[in-house]
Write a structure and sequence with these properties.
By secondary structure, this protein is α+β, with helices and mostly antiparallel strands. Helix content is 41%, strand content 20%. A seven-stranded mixed β-sheet has the order 18-19-17-16-22-23-24, with helices on both faces.
């Protein structure tokens, strides 16, 4: 088989990977800043993404002995829901409002009132949520009317990169599912929702399936990236839909948990299954005709990253001396703390919470803090709290009669043996890994392989290159101990919900 490129446009940075038969031949990453002008806001400059893509593509091509013309196709994975607005000349009008931004509560109420909650669920398969794109569009229209007036094109983050690479305005069904504007079951923009929200369809890109070719590398993009002009670029997928392909979660009964910046439980389904309360998202999957049930907690790995940045300077300094990742050192401290972190429970609501609370006003909490706690207890409580949040989502999958028989761990958190064992014990099921940790980039590359006819289908591509790694099994005694803390965890948000709302008013 030939070479394929997958680009993963994340929140903290972009990773570009060159694959051959699913094996990494070269990779490069580049970071960029997150801007938070107000509490609960999150923005990035789309041009920072483009610079990172150019930088990593050049690095990958330089570090490999592969000629650009040998690369068959490229796919893009990306952070979902972000709003990119371009003027008539294709120039960015304002920073992108990201998936984890919680400013659009009033706009979500407006969407619900205009469309009707039940009708919105019937068409878009999800309620209006602050993280989704439609509310961001209405927010700009309300608060920045001069910018909205100049807007000629609306794109999602990865699709801005597609525009820079190919000069086309296109998206695909998995990412478009997270806008609140897609007719999910018919896999097209909803004329009804757009009409009720007074959003011109001409502002939106053309919708493709994830493995369809959407454009080719332009001469201009070739000059700044090193890619061969004319190389096909496929639809790609939202980050978690791409990760599903990269982990082989493309048939019913399979699921994965990602501990990245956000925390996600993702299960494949052959038919659209909708949670009436909207606590779990229903999206089109990257498999043509397929669907996905997906939860999203907003501050999973972000919680541990926040703790590291604020309270683990000693570990960061030690890394400079030894080269050992500070997260490895933090894991060692956490492992010395017992289950339950000496009666300390963490609520991971640093950015508000989506699944399953749907409350942008929720905020992080350490519950049970006492003078006996040390830093290892706090680290462990963060790790446990993040997994309690995923467990709470997984319980809802059960209510929807989606019962995964296989759970795969991926994302940065999957690198931690301690976190994987916690996951197995808290979930009460076996947890597996995949040999290739670059799941979203691999998924995007495999979709590119389908689009360029190297593989006949997404399933065939996964069967050809994706294996299974280490298996971790739960311990019944530890599961029982975790369950006692989990019961308290579930009771804390209802007890604090009113006070979260009161706090937001101050």
């Amino acid at each position: 088989m030939g070479y394929l490129i997958g680009i993963d446009l994340g929140t903290s940075g972009t990773k570009t990977v060159l694959f051959q038969d699913g094996i990494v031949k070269a990779s490069a990453s580049a970071e960029y800043p997150l801007m938070q002008k107000q509490n609960g806001w999150a923005e990035q400059n789309p041009e920072d993404w483009w610079y990172a893509v150019c930088q990593t593509l050049q690095s990958v091509l330089k570090s490999s002995d592969v000629h650009p013309t040998e690369i068959g196709a490229l796919g893009i994975s990306g952070q979902m829901h972000g709003l990119v607005m371009l003027d008539k000349n294709g120039e960015v009008l304002r920073p992108s409002i990201l998936w984890c931004d919680g400013r659009t509560g009033e706009e979500c109420k407006e969407i619900t009132d205009r469309v009707g909650r039940q009708r919105l669920m019937e068409i878009a398969a999800n309620p209006a949520l602050p993280g989704f794109t439609a509310g961001k569009i209405l927010w700009v229209r309300r608060h920045e009317p001069a910018i909205y007036e100049k807007c000629a094109q609306i794109l999602l983050p990865k699709d801005f990169i597609r525009y820079k690479l190919c000069g086309v305005f296109a998206t695909e069904v998995s990412d478009a599912s997270g806008t609140n504007l897609l007719d999910v079951q018919n896999r097209c923009w909803s004329e009804e929702i757009l009409h009720k929200l007074n959003i011109e369809k001409s502002l939106l890109p053309t919708v493709y399936e994830s493995c369809e070719v959407t454009g080719q590398i332009t001469e201009a993009a070739s000059r700044v990236t090193g890619l061969a002009a004319g190389m096909p670029v496929v639809g790609g997928a939202g980050d978690n839909a791409a990760a599903a392909v990269g982990t082989g979660v493309v048939t019913a009964g399979k699921a994965f948990t990602t501990i990245g910046t956000s925390g996600v439980v993702f299960a494949h389904a052959d038919h659209a299954k909708i949670d009436p309360q909207g606590r779990i998202h229903t999206f089109c999957s990257a498999v043509p005709g397929g669907y996905a049930a997906m939860s999203c907690t907003l501050a999973a790995g972000l919680s541990l990253q926040w703790f590291r940045n604020q309270f683990c300077q000693a570990e960061i300094e030690k890394t400079k001396e030894t080269g050992i990742d500070p997260y490895v050192l933090m894991n060692e401290e956490a492992a010395r703390s017992p289950i339950g972190a000496n009666r300390l429970i963490y609520l991971p609501y640093l950015m508000g919470e989506r699944s399953p609370l749907l409350d942008e006003k929720a905020r992080g909490v350490f519950f049970g803090l006492s003078a006996m706690q040390n830093r290892g207890d706090l680290i462990r409580s963060v790790m446990e709290g993040v997994l309690y949040a995923q467990k709470q989502c997984l319980d809802i999958f059960g209510e929807m009669n989606i019962a995964p028989t296989e759970m795969i761990a991926c994302g940065g958190g999957a690198k931690s043996p301690l976190w994987r064992q916690m996951m197995a014990d808290i979930y009460g099921c076996d947890v597996l890994t995949v040999p290739n940790p670059e799941s979203p980039a691999l998924g995007a590359a495999l979709l590119a392989g389908v689009g360029s006819k190297e593989y006949a289908s997404v399933q065939e591509a996964c069967e050809a290159v994706i294996g299974r790694g280490e298996r971790v099994s739960p311990n019944d005694e530890r599961t029982t101990r975790y369950n006692a803390f989990y019961d308290i965890y579930k009771a804390l948000y209802p007890a604090l919900k009113k006070q979260f709302a009161n706090l937001a008013l101050l």
